[in-house]
Design a protein that fits this description.
It comes from Ktedonobacter racemifer DSM 44963. By secondary structure, the protein is an alpha/beta fold. The chain is about 45% helix and about 10% strand. The structure holds flavin mononucleotide and benzoyl-formic acid. Flavin mononucleotide binds near residues 102, 181, 263, 287 and 318.
Length: about 400
């Protein structure tokens, strides 16, 4: 897609670009500091959307606090002039150890929604993980990206025909891996949504992949264009699926040759079970603190999971990634890559595709400079000796 500068100049080039624009009187269009970005986005969104994004408070604070407890210990005089920020996952190279987390219902923050995010991700070559609960059908999102990398996140519904159909659609749309989210078989008690009496799906938002799916449509007596209420009811009926067990993974394993990762792993024994079930990777996640209030922070769960996995499959992590130093800390503690969540939604809310492009360009620069200034020329060199726990 776009022609990127060599990785060892992401940082310098971006700084130069920003300072030169400053000479013309032009400032970044978004707050660069993550907390300021969050505050600005919260002011720009409707109270319902901002309440939905925020979710619950305590588990999210725990995620941020866990990153605070670990500190980077920079090393000096190690010639880091030539840097390679890329990583390899499932035989594919990606520019940096960051993917865009699957986030549903993006239409509630900006009309460009998933298409805007997809274009921005494509502009820097970071993989975008499409959510099952996308506002926009995945084929349309894929089309906006050219051949840039994309993965697919599956919400495993009660309807086996829909599940099979959506995985096939994801394969046809060029998705390179399947992420099965395990922690959302029910939607949690979310005080702000309850207070606002707001759930986007009931308004028909975030069900684009369902409405466009032939298997889903077969379960309806009338097309969703004629009877949207029936389609919404059907979505709500099949989405919750609390009877799933580890045995059920065998079905999915047979349906796709793509690598499968399980998202929402927080216990080392569950990471082992994922491997024993033939899964190809795990994503350590407490869903951005949105499901179990009081849940362990992802970063706190990572060391024991890393020990249990023993390098047999890749480990990814999300929940609380806000800046480059967080990425380095997660990599030091055993993650091969991380997923960026809310920060790109804040950027999308404020300035659509352009906002997400700016955020990602800044993140690449920050990653390059943080890696270099910590004394490393690649993420492969970063291990537990890079950090210390307070
Ligand atoms: C508004 C919103 C919607 C989300 N939708 C999904 C989803 O559809 N599928 C999924 O697996 N995770 C979903 N997540 C969770 C993210 O994938 C990710 O785990 C989380 O946002 C990471 O934490 P962070 O926001 O602190 O970076 C959602 C998160 C938010 C904030
Ligand atoms: O809100 C969420 O966290 C989430 O994961 C979700 C669940 C269902 C549909 C869309 C998003």
């Amino acid at each position: 897609m776009s022609s990127l500068p060599p990785p060892s100049s992401y940082g310098l080039q971006r700084q130069f670009q920003v300072y030169m624009a400053g000479l013309q009187g032009q400032r970044p269009s978004l707050p660069v500091n993550p907390e300021a970005l969050e505050q600005a986005a919260n002011r720009a969104m409707t109270p319902e959307a901002s309440g939905y994004l925020n979710g619950m408070a305590d588990s999210m604070r725990a995620n941020l606090a866990a990153f605070q407890r670990w500190r980077i210990v920079p090393r000096m005089l190690r010639n880091v002039a030539e840097r390679d920020l890329s990583i390899q996952l499932f035989n594919k190279r990606y520019p940096v150890p960051v993917l865009l987390a699957p986030i549903g219902v993006q239409s509630i923050v900006h009309t460009e929604a998933e298409t805007g995010t997809a274009r921005a991700a494509a502009s820097v070559g970071l993989p975008f993980i499409f959510s099952t609960a996308s506002s926009t059908p995945l084929e349309q999102v894929a089309q906006a990206m050219g051949d840039a990398p994309r993965w697919f996140q599956l919400y495993w519904s009660k309807d086996p025909e829909f599940n099979q159909s959506i995985v096939q659609r994801a394969e046809r749309a060029g998705c390179e891996a399947i992420v099965v989210t395990l922690d959302t078989y029910l939607l949690a008690w979310r005080p702000s949504d309850i207070q606002n009496a707001y759930l986007p799906f009931i308004l028909g938002q975030g069900i684009g992949n369902y409405l466009s799916d032939p298997a889903f449509r077969k379960g309806l007596s009338q097309p969703p264009e004629v009877n949207p209420q029936e389609a919404i009811q059907r979505f709500l009926a099949i989405f919750t699926n609390p009877s799933l067990t580890w045995q059920d993974l065998a079905t999915l394993r047979q349906q796709t040759k793509l690598p499968i990762l399980l998202k929402g792993i927080l216990h080392p024994d569950d990471a082992r079970k994922a491997i024993d079930s033939g899964m190809d990777g795990v994503i350590v996640s407490n869903h951005g603190g949105r499901q179990v209030e009081g849940a362990i922070a992802s970063l706190d769960a990572l060391p024991a999971i890393s020990e249990a996995v023993r390098g047999e499959v890749p480990i990814l992590l999300d929940s609380g990634i806000r800046q480059a130093s967080d990425v380095l800390k997660a990599v030091a503690l055993g993650a091969q890559a991380v997923l960026l969540g809310r920060p790109y939604m804040w950027a999308l809310a404020l300035n659509g595709e352009q906002g997400v492009r700016e955020l990602l360009a800044n993140l690449l620069a920050d990653l390059d400079l943080t890696l270099a200034l910590s004394g490393y020329a690649s993420f492969a060199e970063v291990d537990t000796s890079a950090v210390v726990r307070l």
